[in-house]
Amino acid sequence: MKFFKHRGDFYIPKSSYKSSKEARILRILLVFIVIFTAVFLVMLSRNYSSASEFFGKGEVTVTEEDVTDEVLPEIEGKTNFLIFETDDFEQSIHYIYLLQADKTGKAYKFCSLSPKTVIGKEKLIDIYRAGGGASMQTKLMEYLGVQIDYFVAFQNSNFVNFCDRLGTFNCPVSNEIRFSGGESDDKYTIHIKEGDETLDAKNFSNLLRYYADEKKNLALQNEVLMHAYTSLFNAENFEDSESIFRLLIKSSTTNITVRNFENGKDALMVFCKMNTEITVYNTEVKYEKNKLTQDSIKNIKGYFS
């Protein structure tokens, strides 16, 4: 029943039976909770010295943010790579170099070779045309006396596409470069300012080719490679290393397999995540009539054995 008086509402229940029943139920529940709590506390005080001991027998821990450095895996050994770029018709070699990942010494080692290198009476390009990258790998191992574990052969356009995925890097250039060269379908143009220059994939490829073929300055080629590897082999690219590896297989001719990649992941992690802590070495070689001098061969063997 509801009455309205002035501005207030007054409710008068038809019966007090329902409210009395609810009150009795609440009182019974309250008594039960009080008794249960008392019994629980007595048992707890007799058998356990603290609440943490009761819940975890002393193993209760507090989760804290891990601020320690990531522990990188232990790695050891050395791996040598032969890497080179050709024109898109595989009729000339733009540049070629040896790379060593020294996992024991945490170091990169580079040695740029002349594309016009002659072994015995054979030019590198003729060896490549006859038997591909595997043939060049074998001939250079015999000639230099070092183990070359893998080769990676890129056509120019494929190298640019692959390195586009890796990103750009900064490289100091001592003099402004304005140059156009190459022949017929293999022409290239390079324009780089003096100073710290940000190199994209196309300029990276063209600069290596310019130093190797036009300037014949393999020391400068080594320097470009050092800046590239210590910049592009970084933690961000490592996180996406599986897709980058798939692109490498698609973009190049190589004897690196999926198993090799999986077995080398620990080393790749260390080299990518230590990055600036990796030591970098390079050895410059000299030629006489497009043949390596004996001293240069000895230097290469000393570095890459």
How would you portray this structure in words?
The protein has 305 residues and is of the alpha+beta class. The chain is 46% helix and 25% strand. The protein has a six-stranded mixed beta sheet with strand order 13-8-3-4-5-14, sandwiched between helices. Strands 1-2 form a two-stranded antiparallel sheet. A two-stranded antiparallel sheet has the order 6-7. Strand 6 (118-119) and strand 7 (122-123) form a beta hairpin. It starts with a strand and ends with a helix. Residues 1-12 have low confidence and may be disordered.
Strand content: 15-25%
Main β-sheet: number of strands, strand sense, barrel status?
A: 6 strands, mixed
Total DSSP helices: 11
Which descriptor suits the 3D outline? elongated
Average per-residue pLDDT, rounded, comes to: 87
Q: Helix-strand pattern, N to C?
A: EEHHEEEEEHEHEEEEHHHHEHHEEEH
Query: Taking strands numbered 1, 2, ... along the chain, how are they ordered across the largest sheet?
Result: 13-8-3-4-5-14
Radius of gyration: 36 Å
What is the number of strand segments?
Answer: 16
Q: What is the straight-line distance between the termini?
A: 103 Å
- Provide the helix percentage: 40-55%
Low-confidence stretches: 1-12
Protein structure class: alpha+beta
